[in-house]
Amino acid sequence: MLDIVIDVVVLIVSLIIVIKSADVFIENISLIGVALGVSQMLLGVTAAAIGTSLPEFGSALLAILNHSSNMGVGIVVGSNIWNVAGIFGITAAVTGFVKADKKSLNRDGVVAVITGLLLMFVMILSVKFTNPSTLSNNVIGVISCSIPIIFGSLIMVLFYLYYFKILLKDQKEDLNSFKKEAAERIDERQDIILDSSLINSNLEKEKIKSKNIILVIVSVLALAVACDLLINSATELSHIIGIPETIMALFTLSIGTSIPELVVTLSSAMKGLHDLSLGTILGSVTFNILIPIGLLSFFSHINVETLSLYFDTPVMILITALTILIFKWNNMRLNRISGLFLIGVYVVYAYIRIFFLGGL
Amino acid sequence: MYNKILVPTMGKYIYQLMDHTLKFVDDRDVEIIALYVVDDSVPFLIPNSVKEEMIEELKLKGGYFLDKFEELLDLKNNPNISLEKVLKKGSPDEVIVNFARENEVQMIILGTGKSIVDKHLLGSVSEKVVHRAPCDIFLVRTVNDD
């Protein structure tokens, strides 16, 4: 019993450290970027794209490197199912609705579905081209740095870079149009009395501060140590309680590492910033798959379990597509009833996965 | 009587608020202060970069809605009204109450805002202001025009 309590405490504390150190890392690496003359727009889009996804990336990386590679795919696929069904569902149920901009939904939604299909394609490649005699229980393929599997991984990384380029282009268009005008208008206008804390100080190119470099190093170390502790405590817990590691990854770790997405989505929808809600979820869904799986397969082996290929990944793709269709059917909105429906879908998925298919 | 009126707006229900404000003012000489509060409260685990982005977006929204407010007020055809537009940051109910107190506002015109379900799930700025305001309040029964 004491072992379980200790593992749960370690899991929660390491999760908080993972999330906060990812935040410190992004903030300070951006400041160093400004000092090096990297464009604010590029930094902004990067921070938005990976800011909330670093915990998933870090824990998937540590899971794969720690040879708990059954957990790697579980964390990212589980996170995505939770992000779309759970977080969108909770946000719409609590705030009443989530509104989507047609252009963003078409762009990010389609990319998210294609990402899921790409993952399936790479998984199928790994099944076709892995020698079955080298596989352990429940594992049907290994995503690794071998031809032709690596071509699939390469397509994933290149697809993400292409998506990132589109994001940058769209952001540039936004800045060139209304956002820039509006921003300049507010800071320069005399007819609106501004709170002094709201006036933008011009971010000028400064020298790199040693404090930022130290904080980047410390946050990376903290992220690595905390991710390691997180994976170890989750693995130990799964052994003590007697549940498969994949279940632990699909639910506990994926929901835990998605806390930043939950707070950002809920809080921005409450403030009426629906673009931010939508972008956070769909952006994370894309990043979570393409970068951890695509990039890590160049350096390590990622196990593909039977259920990951035949159940979890198809469910992820279907839920993402279904959510996009609900938005479209409801005049680009996800209302409270749709939110409750998505939560229901997640509960049904979890029930089937844990009690019927998961071996409990 | 009621020469200095504060109208906090968060963008929603702006048409209904404006309609009632103009009816209430009628042809009296009145100073209206339109206030948009950039709500900067965020949960502990939200990344700092996202918090800054949120504040920036809300600031732009605030500027847009204050302009919209001015446009709807139609100052050319309502010369009896003088308008001041204010954008502040903080917790909306606290900023509204403190602003009204510091500027000796005589009346706050507010929308009832949310449905009963939303009120319980999200809390209500109007309700908090009603209990702490230093002056009279005109509560407009708003319906969702989103």
Gist of the model:
Chain A has helices at 2-35, 40-50, 54-65, 69-95, 102-128, 149-176, 178-188, 210-241, 245-257, 259-270, 274-296, 306-329, 336-357, and strands at 97-99, 139-143, 192-194, 302-305, 333-335. With 360 residues, chain A is mainly alpha-helical.
Write up this protein.
- The complex is a heterodimer of chains A (360) and B (146).
- Chain A has 360 residues and is mainly alpha-helical.
- Chain A contains 13 helices and 5 strands.
- In chain A, the strands form 2 sheets. A two-stranded antiparallel sheet of chain A has the order 1-5.
- In chain A, helix 5 (102-128) runs antiparallel to helix 6, helix 5 (102-128) runs antiparallel to helix 12 and helix 8 (210-241) packs antiparallel against helix 9.
- Chain A starts with a helix and ends with a helix.
- The model of chain A has no long low-confidence stretch (mean pLDDT 85).
- By secondary structure, chain B is of the alpha/beta class.
- Chain B contains 5 helices and 5 strands.
- Chain B has a 5-stranded parallel β-sheet with strand order 3-2-1-4-5, with helices on both faces.
- In chain B, helix 3 (92-102) packs parallel to helix 5.
- Chain B starts with a strand and ends in a 6-residue tail after the last strand.
- The model of chain B has no long low-confidence stretch (mean pLDDT 87).
- At the A-B interface, helix 1, helix 2, helix 7, strand 3 and helix 10 of A face helix 2, strand 3 and helix 4 of B.
- Strand 3 (192-194) of chain A pairs parallel with strand 3 of chain B.
